[in-house]
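Onboarding guide, step 5: your first structure request.
Type a short instruction followed by the sequence, for example:

Predict the 3D structure of this protein.
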Amino acid sequence: MSAIVVVWVDEIEKLKEKVQARRPLLWRAKKEQRSAQETRVEEKEAARETTLSETTLCLLMDRFVPW
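The system replies with structure tokens like these:
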């Protein structure tokens, strides 16, 4: 019975090592995904700030177009 427990513990340790080896790869992928998502959000915010509404554009044209 104790032999089975020793085998299980050994297998669990092997699995633990595999998970720890993969963990940096998973963290890197998640970090890249987060940074890409943040970049998209920043781009959307920048586009909103530089876009004039149609009404604003018409008012500016009415004001500054020489007749």
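Each response can be followed by summary notes, for example: Residues 3 and 47 are 65 Å apart (CA to CA).
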